[in-house]
Amino acid sequence: xxxxxxxxxxxxxxxxxxxxxxxxxxxxxxxxxxxxxxxxxxxxxxxxxxxxxxxxxxxxxxxxxxxxxxxxxxxxxxxxxxxxxxxxxxxxxxxxxxxxxxxxxxxxxxxxxxxxxxxxxxxxxxxxxxxxxxxxxxxxxxxxxxxxxxxxxxxxxxxxxxxxxxxxxxxxxxxxxxxxxxxxxxxxxxxxx
Length: 193
Hints:
Blueprint lengths: L8 H12 L6 E8 L3 E6 L4 E2 L13 E4 L7 E6 L11 E9 L12 E5 L11 E7 L9 E4 L2 H9 L4 E4 L5 E3 L10 E8 L1
Antiparallel strand pairs: 1-12, 2-3, 2-5, 4-5, 4-11, 5-10, 6-9, 6-12, 7-8, 7-10
């Protein structure tokens, strides 16, 4: 309109460039599933892996916790290696682990989970890190997606933990790598690309 102030190119040019130049980085929200690279159970009385229910149910890869008869303490573990770190996540906004009771127990029982430092099986049981967390009651034969607490997700993201163990006192068993979803992590994360 007549008499309206005009804006010169010296003011407009930088603004146009700012609007039309794509950002050099994008923050994207991504979802993924990560399976354990190895899973199994450590039996304390024999100080070794693969010493409990190796030929029954899901076999060697099942994870157990607690004590059954003369078993001594059983502790199962699922190792993910560097798969979570390799995502390059800035933040993991939500994460679940798939728990599938393997039929060793026919009653409704929970498991207690705790992060472990190592990403692969060693000679002994791996070092625990962070606080243990108890799952809800597991229904025999039913798959459950259990939400992992923020502390565990951050340990996995940063490499402070590379696995999850079963550390409860109540005897219970869940499927590991013998089942396609056994101990699988489902993660929603934010990454800068």
